[in-house]
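Table 4 source record.
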Amino acid sequence: MNKKPIIAISMGDPFGNGPEITVKALSDEHLYETCRPVVVGDASCMEYACRIARKVSGIDLRIHVISEVNEARFTYGTIDLVDMNKVPSSSIPDHSAEDSPAAFGVGACALGGEAAFSYVTTVIDLAMKGLVDGTVTNAISKESINMAGHHYSGHTEIYADYTGTKRYAMMLAHHDFRVVHVSTHVSLREACDRVKKDRVLECIQLAAEACKDMGIANPKVAVAGLNPHCGENGLFGTEEIDEIQPAIEAAKEQGIEVLGPLPPDSIFSQAIGGWYDIVVVMYHDQGHIPMKTVGFVYDREKQDWKAVEGVNITLGLPIIRVSVDHGTGWALAGTGKSNELSLVNAIDYAAKLAMGKLA
């Protein structure tokens, strides 16, 4: 029992749907069979989220406020919470009243940004000190954290900075469909300029290492081209010739099984079909669009999301970091309708990665 990894979960933006998703995810008893979860956030928001879950879904969980991880009970039915006390109770509506507002999604604000940033840096600190075995992050608002004076483009950059990591990359995963990004939160014009041999090679290496960490002994890595039809031998661009192909050849010399560059209009259907274990993509949307196409499923008849799945993993860090693959959901905050599957998947992934390290 004591060998189950402790997973610290940051609550996400306090005015988004993170608190509600956290409550709904931790109502899944199987998570307690694979790990020992502890949340870092605000009691005011988590208590509110519990009231919503109770009213909308009949989920009956209680909050156990702690100041140190060693005070946690890790008992299903009770959510252990390190209370950062950043959001005053006056900011949260009394959802127990029938006429109270259904949502508190106020959107981007400095208060939410400062609170969310503190949750993230706290889970990083806990992991760096060895007090937890892995971390999972709910969604933050990049606008909010910048309004609060923390100038980062996302979780990945915060983790890299606070862990002193220079060699890192974002990986998205939906079951056995995985992509690793050469660049993420930059303009498309800048993303093209970032397709350089050394960075592409680094991402191939990180992709292969990640697969091995997940138990794939001989991973097959595919590399997407940047240009239509991989440039057609320089007709539509020369990045494949000048940067991507040399990186692939260098990776092969290191013993990595790597294929490419392959046309980006067909590489993902092949990966979903099991041809490759992981795909290195050249920029944010090249990887995010196919991932969300397979992971985000909308029910036309019910006019609601059937599934919002997929996780975000930062590779190259000295600690484990897995995240949901969706935003703060301002419009859904407070309704109890947000889908928790991505967070459940993220906790599962973090637990598996942590068990691999503890073994």
